[in-house]
């Protein structure tokens, strides 16, 4: 099983982002994930795109989940990507 590269869009001082990162770390123990943490404040374009949605978890060019992250549904989505 090859690693799935996750783009994790986040910002500082974001409790939802902290929770989402913890969920990603837990899932990383179950399957090979490469987590790329991206602070949306590094780019005006990212702030405009994701400012109201963060945290955002994307893989394979697709936004998988945003806001309140659900571990079980995210796990299912990741398993379908890695088939």
From TrEMBL:
Superkingdom of origin organism: Bacteria
Xref: Gene3D superfamilies: Glutaredoxin (3.40.30.10)
Name under which the protein is recorded: Glutaredoxin-like domain
């Amino acid at each position: 099983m090859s690693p799935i590269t996750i783009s994790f869009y986040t910002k500082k001082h974001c409790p939802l982002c902290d929770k989402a990162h913890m969920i990603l770390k837990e899932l990383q123990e179950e399957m090979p994930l490469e987590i790329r943490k991206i602070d949306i404040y590094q780019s005006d374009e990212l702030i405009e795109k994701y400012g109201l949605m963060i945290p955002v978890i994307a893989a394979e060019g697709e936004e998988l989940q945003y806001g309140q992250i659900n571990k079980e549904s995210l796990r299912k989505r990741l398993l379908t990507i890695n088939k």
